[in-house]
Design brief:
- The complex is a heterotrimer of chains A (343), B (390) and C (403).
- Chain A is α/β, with parallel strands linked by helices and 343 residues long.
- In chain A, 37% of the residues lie in helices and 18% in strands.
- In chain A, α3 packs antiparallel against α12 (299-306) and α9 packs across α12 (299-306).
- The radius of gyration of chain A is 22 Å and the shape is globular.
- In chain B, strands 1-2 form a two-stranded antiparallel ribbon.
- Chain B has helices at residues 2-8, 24-27, 36-43, 48-74, 90-95, 103-114, 122-140, 147-165, 181-208, 213-228, 231-245, 254-280, 283-291, 296-326, 338-345, 355-389; strands at residues 82-83, 86-87.
- Chain B has 2 domains: 2-70, no CATH class; 119-389, MetI-like fold (Orthogonal Bundle), CATH 1.10.3720.10.
- In chain B, β1 (82-83) and β2 (86-87) form a beta hairpin.
- Chain C has a 4-stranded antiparallel sheet with strand order 1-2-3-8. In chain C, strands 4-5 form a two-stranded antiparallel sheet. Chain C has a two-stranded antiparallel sheet with strand order 6-7.
- In chain C, β6 (256-258) and β7 form a beta hairpin.
- The radius of gyration of chain C is 29 Å and the shape is globular.
- The two termini of chain C are 29 Å apart.
- The chains are: A alpha/beta (343), B mainly alpha (390), C alpha+beta (403).
Amino acid sequence: MKAFKAVGAIALAAGLVAGAAGAQAQGTGSATIDAIKARGLLVCGVSTGVAGFSLADSQGVIKGIDADGCRTVAAAILGDATKVRFVPTTTINRFTALQSGEIDVLIRETTWTLGREASLGLEFAGVNYYDGTGFLVKTAANVKSAKDLDGATVCVQPGTSTELAISDYFRNNKLKFTPVNIQDQNEIQGAFLSGRCDAYSTDSSALAGFRFQQGAKATDLVLLPEIISKEPLGPMVRKGDDKFFDVVKWTQYATLTAEEDGVTSKNIDTFASTTNPEIRRLMGLEGDMGKALGIDNKWAYNAIKQVGNFGEIWDRNITVMGVPRGINNLWNKGGLQYAPPIR
Amino acid sequence: MSELATTNIDPVPATAGNAAIPNTSRARPPATVHGPVAWVKTNLFGSWLSSLATIVFGILLIRWAIGFFDWAILHAVWSVPEGANGPDVSACRDAKGVGACWAVIGEKYRFILFGRFPYDLQWRTALVIVLFIALYAVSAWRRFWRKELLLVWVATLVVIGVLMWGGILGLEFVPQDQWGGLPLTLILATFGLAFAFPLSVLVALGRRSTKLPAVKALCVLYVELIRGVPLITLLFMASVMFPLFLPEGVNIDKLLRAQVAIILFAGAYLAEVVRGGLQSLPKGQYEAADALGLSYWKKTGFIVLPQALRLVIPPLVNTFIGFFKDTSLVLIIGLFDLLSAGKIAISEPAWAAYSTEVYLVLAAIYFVFCYTMARYSRGLEREFSRARNR
Amino acid sequence: MSGAVVDPRLHAARAAPKRRMRLSWSDPKFRAIVWQVLVVGILAAIVAYLVHNTNKNLAARHIATGFAFLARTAGIPIGEHAIEYDPATSTYGDALIIGIINTLKVAIVGVVLTTIWGTLLGIARLSKNWLLSRAAYLYVEILRDIPLLLQLLFWYGLVQTLPSVRDAFAVLPGVFFSNRGIKVPLFDWEPAHSWALAAFLVGLIGVIAWSSVASKRQAETGVRPKTWPVALGLLVAFPLFVWAVLGAPFQLDMPIKGGFNFRGGGTISPEYCALTLGLVVYTAAYIAEIVRSGIQAVPQGQWEAAGALGLRPGAVLRQIVLPQALRVVIPPMTSQFLNLTKNSSLAVAIGYQDVVSIDQTTLNQTGQAIEGIALLMAVFLVISLSISLFMNWYNARIALVER
């Protein structure tokens, strides 16, 4: 019986095992980058389907800012933004998948918290989306503030930081509420619209997008002014591979820098003879920035050319959902997105 | 239709159905039980209680049918125009609550059926579905029940593997993360059965062995442990716990882990089915084999299993139907099987409101597969019992 | 063999099976031991290897081990709790106990309802009324061939189409149906009620005693004394009398619309309704088939013989056929009850906080996957085992009736 099981497992495994990630050889000093180069693919954990972040369209192509985040990293390391293998993860197995090396990087609207960074053996490489927990209610309920929600029923996704945030908020304000915990985003939204709960609580961006999608009925819903928690969402990598951590972090900074300098995927080639030193470094024309990171000097050029700068990625995925840019604007436009200089 | 016939001329007297219905059909002379009017009289208005049931039921059914027709056909939106940012769903939004929006199926059917498989290569997955159906059909034919069938299975599964993965014969390679939809459901269920079956035979034999108490204890432990917990916990285990078991740097793909969980789960249930078959074999068969001086493996391989396994085919098919439905639980660990693909399809905000339509289509697909298999297994069962009683 | 004169030499040879085991492959005993040592050894080696890996991985990832987390404050908001629960102070242990209670709530109510509904369907399947039997047939076929998860999603969607609190419709005074669930009046429990309950239990014992007396007398005289007046008196009149003597307290806590939701009264949540409804409706399709084949397994002669004795059709079904069918029906029924219990784990998909849902949140927050899953398995094993044991006991009990 055991013999059979072993044979069966091997036969199946022969095709399916995504080999050992331990190979180092000559390389860059980063086990993860070496493994990515060896297999010619970046394995990127995303969500199973959240509109605007990562969601398969009718053709099965995954779209969203998280998915584009994966693509920029792939373009930076491998020079080809299509060399990404997306692994959909759920809230239950996302950290395990990264810890075990099943995925190289997790870009799955995951909130940066001390607890997660300290106890999971994982770390956050920047923030691609500044969010916060908000409440959406029906206009008819005539609620003006979250403080009026005493005794309300609130729909929330279990296992998320939102769940803990609203629990804290209500306790802090000595209010009572009844949670309705539903795993699936779609089910929650249906439950809220049907009136199962008085308020729908999740990241305020998602709420704004959801409201926008109601079309003409958007005015039936109102977003309460309180943002009760900070939810910086960002990519996560394993601790102990600083080179790869740097690449993920700086790839995102590169897209921000490009937006700041007005470099887009369309016009990037017109900068080929620019004299602006920052753009020249970004394009890999001088400074050997890529070498310093352990990858190709064209890393940022590839990422921007093939995927786009931060503004383009945002507009393509988030603006179409009706979510305002808000605090996710560049620092010089009143937002929080600030890239350290590339030099 | 034989089903219909059995219900009508059931060997059980009418009293079984409704204690208050007198046994009129027997009391009357046979002449009056012929003709449509008489049929209606006996079968629909046999007594006042029966008449009441017929009327109440009839009205409810008709009202429901009209309502469904209105919603699904009369007021339905079949397609929507293409707008600047993808399809313009305002027609569907207006029809919400009055008519169905079948446009969601038109837009999403390929995603639901084939998941994230590359769009241009989806002919391969379509072919895989056809192959699976052909494989089931061939296996269902009793004329093909011989050793060569095993070869057909191996060959077909290999071809399916080639079509799904590609990478050879000029086919483009597709990693298994991009598999999804109906092929994934069929793969999980079929490979689950194909690997669980031999395992289950060994476990069933082990559980019945008298000479190997330690092996027996292990088999009992395995079967009872697995049967005592829901599949969900096994999938959690495969998804969250299993990676902890492996040495640093070694990873097993999520699909394979889920597949192993399903095989282990199916193995325990099938083992009980096989054990039932082994038990139903007359003792004389074992004794005769012993008398011939056959070794244990010869006795099992040539005498016991061929007879026992034949008997367990109908319950085996029923168990298979169970897995086929249960594979929908892989949704919980982030695999895109048929049900999950349907759910992802309606995660797109524009289509989020039309879940009913998608669920109905999914239900229809599952139903067609399961019902066909169930009918088949019942026909087989009847045939076997007739053969036995002869 | 029996009766034949046994050759004493043969006898002696057979009486000496204590042949010493030879260390040779041709000795079956020796082979058996080798095989077992091999299998157990390989298994033990695999387990040891996995444990070793796990320990290394746990250490490398700084994941805590042990069940200490059960005593930590949970902070998980829980909607339905049968016992006192406050996210601020209650522990993970408390949360899990609530989860177990919630699972049991679904399982017990589900088993009872599904038995009733499934039996009715099974009988309807055999009805002489064509429409009824066809409808039951369609019901069974369609529901069995669609995944339960899909059905649960459907039911949950359906429950949500109920009117909002403001437009809730009152089925009975004080009983409201809305998309917030079913609201029922509760009445304040007072000592008089406890006494009435005690009286009811005493009455129940009395009825059982009386019915055994009645059976005895029926066996002696052939006439069964009426039991229902005694039952009525002991089960209804006696408890009512006790309650009335103690002052007949009756204070209802009626649900009243107010604020966001109803105030007062008891609630049955929509998630609970949808889950229980889905499980009952699905499992009943299986039960119906079991009941049908159970009834059909009773030989035709039994019906005819009972009819010949002059029993009325209803009595034939109740007193002759069903008791016999029961014996065929119990084992497959047991496995359906187990299935229902295990299937209740799909609750997480529609937002009912059963033990799986709470356990999942717990292991997500603590990162202690092994402990979390082990707990979950233990809970289900205990529940499954309890159901199995009870049904085996019941099976043995009704089997004893047979001569």
